[in-house]
Amino acid sequence: MSSLINPLIWDDGVLKLLDQRKLPLEETIVECRTHEDAFNGIRDMVVRGAPLIGYTGIFGMALFAKGNRNTSIEELQKAADYLNSSRPTAVNLNYELRRCVQIAKDLKSSEGSLENLEKEFVKFGHEQLEIIHTHNLSMAKIAQKDLEARLGKKKFRIMTLCNTGYLACGPMGTALGVIAHLANNDQIEHVYASETRPYLQGIRLTSYELKKQNIPHDVVCEGSFSYLMKKGLIDAIFIGADRIVRNGDTANKIGSSTLSIVAKHYNVPFFVVAPTSSFDFESDHGDQIPIELRDQDEILFCKGQRLAPEGVSALNPSFDVTDANCISGIICEKGLIDPVTKENLLKVTGRN
Ligand code: MRU
């Protein structure tokens, strides 16, 4: 296996991000020295993927604490709100930033000062990177067991969309973590990686990861969903999530909902794999999820070359919401939510 490059490293007060905009052709690092740099890294998609956006938020708070030794809880809250405004859909960012503010409040009441805040945030960030690895492995094992029982076989042809691997999570991955785990156990016959227009996370990033891990795959375009399933080429589909709300509706990369509808039509099991940090227990329904609208030039241009006639505009929603009734199961570190109902979601996650 070729070496996997860590997408996020804290190196002596500098946050180093693998520049995912340049992959797969160049492996370069962007250095963040201020929380504004971290904000730009998230907004400009140097770093992306729901869990990794969350961890960048934590280390962004560490950068703020480093540059503002005499800060207050109010200032920290402002920094958290600022970082949270970088991208709206993945709830992980909000979740981690809220926890950072809580850490600061706890530190203030226990030590009476915020002097050690940078150290606390860095420790917290590294702990989360370890925890997500454990969670991803648990989710992969749950998926493996369910798939074997559901399909009555040991080797699978899996489809996925966007990038949900270690580039999106730090260690391992969610949906792509399932695929990597199956591959480690010689249980992958083939993977179909959807190219993921317009930002091309599938063809650029998922294919980059699969190739590094020697996992056999083809890149396919979004228009081929029906062709592939009608031909019986897909045993199951695994995607990640940016936000799962209480009724199981799930926001993920644009095209996920279309994929789920085609899967339901052809009776192909469709799974969402996401840690509970991607769950938004404050929202009841998918309609409440803010959907990021990105620059139209991501559609209109390819590598600086305009594709559409001059004067033509584009609409670029970056995510869509898959209806809970199109999802066969949601896998989180606490177990499998199947069927996907509000009651089951609360029961498996232990929330109310
Ligand atoms: O716009 P991106 O690349 O940040 O979108 C990423 C996705 O939609 C992923 O599927 C999702 O964040 C889950 S990553 C484990």
How does the SSE layout of this entry go?
Blueprint: E1 8-11, E2 14-18, E3 29-32, H1 35-43, H2 50-67, H3 73-84, H4 91-111, H5 117-151, E4 156-161, H6 166-169, H7 175-184, E5 188-194, H8 201-212, E6 217-220, H9 225-230, E7 236-239, E8 243-245, E9 250-253, H10 256-265, E10 270-273, E11 279-280, H11 297-300, E12 301-302, E13 305-306, E14 319-322, E15 329-332, E16 335-337, H12 342-349
Parallel strand pairs: 4-5, 4-7, 5-6, 7-10, 8-11, 10-15
Antiparallel strand pairs: 1-2, 2-3, 8-9, 9-14, 12-13, 15-16
This protein binds 5-S-methyl-1-O-phosphono-5-thio-D-ribulose.
5-S-methyl-1-O-phosphono-5-thio-D-ribulose is lined by residues 48-51, 90, 162, 164, 168-169, 174, 201, 240-242, 252-253, 318.
Keywords: Isomerase
Family: Belongs to the eIF-2B alpha/beta/delta subunits family. MtnA subfamily.
GO biological process, one term: L-methionine salvage from methylthioadenosine
